[in-house]
Predict the structure.
Amino acid sequence: MAKNVLLTGGTGFIGSYLTDVLIDNGFTVSILSRSARENTSLITYYKWNLKSNYINEEAVLQADYIIHLAGEGIVEKRWSKRRKKAILESRVQPIDLIGSILKKNNKKLDAFISASAIGIYGAVTSHKICTEDTAPANDFLGSTCQQWEKAVDAIGTLGIRTVKVRTGIVFGKNEGFLKKVAPSFKAGFGAVLGTGKQYLPWIHVEDLCAIYLKAVTAPDLEGPYNACITDNTTNSRFSRTLANLFGYAIWLPKIPPFVLRIILGEMSVAVLEGQRVSSEKIQKTGLEFQITDLEKALVSCLD
C-alpha cells in the first residue's frame, strides 16, 4: 500500500511542485486546505482553520509523513508589529497543533519534515560561509527561524524523526521570487538593489523538491540542511544576468539603501543583506543538484 504524505501549504508554489514529485514517486498526498476542494484518486483534501485552531485530525492520523510548508510571505507586506506576529504564528501554530494531535493519539510518523530558512543566519552580509552549525542570529529573521525550528524539535521529542530544510530564494517558472521581480526587468527597468554586493543564495524548485523527497525516503536524514546553490551569486550578478536575458544591459543606477529603507521599512534588510551559505551537508548525502548554473536556472523559469 502506498505511503501517505500530508502537506501544509500544499496548494502553494512549492507545495504544488512537490505534490507532483511525491505522486510520481509512488506516494499518495493529503493536503490541508482552508477551502473545500474536490478529492482525486491520489490527493485528498482536509479542512483546517488556524484562526479557530482547527485541523481535521483524520488528516494527521492517516499520514505516514508530514511536510510543513505553510507560512505567510516574508516580503509580502511591511513588517508592522502585527505582520511580524502573523509571520511567526503562521509557521509555528500549525506545528503546535499537529504536535498536540500526535501526542494525544500516540501517533508515530515515519518523519516530520519542515521548511525553514537561511534567514536563521541573520540579515547581514559578510565573507563568512554559513553552515548548519553556524550560530543563529538574534534579529527578526533569525529569531523567527529559531522559534520555527524549536517547534519542530518538540515533534522530535515524541520519538519522530525530524528534518528542517533551510531554504534560500526559490526559482520556479512564473512563480515565487521571479514572479515578483521579472516583470520590471522584462519592461526594461531592472536595477541593482543597494550595493549589489549582498549574496543571494538560490535554489531551483526542482532541486528543492528533490531534497524533500530525499528527506522522506532516506531514514538517516535528520536535523537541519541548507537548501541552496553555493555559487556566491550576489544581487548585482543576479540583476545583470536577468537583464541580459531580456536583451539589455542595466542602465538604471543602483537603488540606494536609504530609498529602500524608506519604501520597505525594516523589511528592507531582506533585500539589502544576504549571507553566503554552504550546501555541503545535503550533498554529502548523495544528492546532486541538477540546476546549478544561474543563467540556465533563470532561462528555465522564464517564458
Notes: The longest helix spans residues 81-105. The mean pLDDT is 94. The first strand starts at residue 4 and ends at 8.
